Amino acid sequence: MMRFLDARRCFALAIAIAVLPALADAQAPAAGARSSERDLVRYDFDDDLSIESGPDTFRVYRATKGTVEITSAYRRSGERSLMLRDVPGDGHFPELQGYLPLRRTGRLFMRLSFLVANPDQELNIALAGPNWFRLEKDGISYWLKTEGGILRHVSDGMPKRLFKVDPFVWYTADVAFDLVRGRYDLKIRREGESGPMVDLNDQPSAHGAVEAGIDKFSIVGSPFDDESSVVFFVDDVAFGVDEALVLPPFAAPGRRKLFVDRVVELRAALKARPTCPALSSYGEIGMPDPPEAGVLLEAFRKWRRGCEALDGAAPNPVLAAALFSMAIEAIDAPVYRMSRAVARAAGGRLDLAWEDAEAARAADPFDPRAVVVSGLVAYAKGRTAYGTELWREALANLDRMPDDRPAREDLAERLFYSLLWQERCEEAGEFARARAESASSPRDWVLRRGDALFLCGQLDLSRGLYSSVRSGDWDPEVLERLSDIAFKQGDLAAERRYREEVYGSLHPR
Hints:
The radius of gyration is 26 Å and the shape is globular. It starts with a helix and ends in a 6-residue tail after the last helix. The protein is of the alpha+beta class. Strands 1, 3, 4, 6, 11, 12, 13 and 15 form an eight-stranded antiparallel β-sheet that branches. It has a domain of 221 residues: Jelly Rolls (Sandwich).
């Protein structure tokens, strides 16, 4: 349990920041392409230790007839490269999808060498962000593709011609991406030639928007129409950044945190994220339903604007708190106080946040929203035991109210994760067992109980619980957890088998 000490403290303070930072998934060691770069990731496909799949490395898609595998037939350097072979009409496409720490600032560098056997067939190479492979902001930022034997890059939403691709020739593409400006420089060299055949500067991103978030890449055949029969090879995939990064070591193959750690920390963090309490009715802010014009309507609008400032992509808790104060001046509604408590805590003003939270709870001690806010602020102030007892008391009250199932489930989850962060894993496990026995769909609570037992070191019991709710052969939630147990018990063959059922493999089938 010692590995959870820092995470527990982070949970206790999470309410005091504007928004929880994205979990920075890190990658395997790498060498940058230029001396100004800091190593981030590298795949040369020669070292078996660097080709383990997982959430912090890559995922392999090679269903049905397609191929994604290591080969020595062609290579740019070393002894091996990666071959991708697409088969038209099989309903799938071969893909190597890799994962990076999310980057939004500075410069990101990528180098990749590729050779195409049949350039008239389609292939795609792309960098994307949290919105995945869609042509929109935080989606695809950089995109190379072949169409009819021509290599093109997509810039500002439009494919633009680069050159005719010759078969069985290695090309090396270097991109330097300015993430804040959303623009990149591109150089492409042909093997045997000293100078670049493509040398473009300051190109708009693929989606054309300023600013770009990048956390993944894709090397794929044809994901759109299933008509490509391309065969191509990739080698020396490398990423670098222009600042020093401290990356944690791998906790197990393909992951820098065990799957159970990742799930528990992420879900608990989501429960601690500062958000506006939901409005149950217009009546609680003194307005008819629907609201009419007047002072109360203007207060309501201030509250809505404050919620947008608090919950948006770039949270501003100071502005949110000011807007909530304006709403309170018109009507001292508990929901406005709850909202200001969240905003003040997110801005670090914990004593004032506590006053608002307790005032809202005093107005209605049985309002689950007020209890949740008080509990979160208590956690932020370091009063974890008090916050947990608040939620336990509120849950007992809610259990007597069968018509309030969403609020009851929310509080139950908060209580479960608060017990884990206090390292009370056995108590958390018993709590999850009781919830599972009374739940109409017990799967989630069985998984949570398994997580608690895992953290207590009761691996055999945990494995039995996970296996009991496994849904078919492909159940990622269960397979990832079973992979963790196998790793902890030293069964590396089973660890790989479970993990690769989810993330695929570059190892020979």
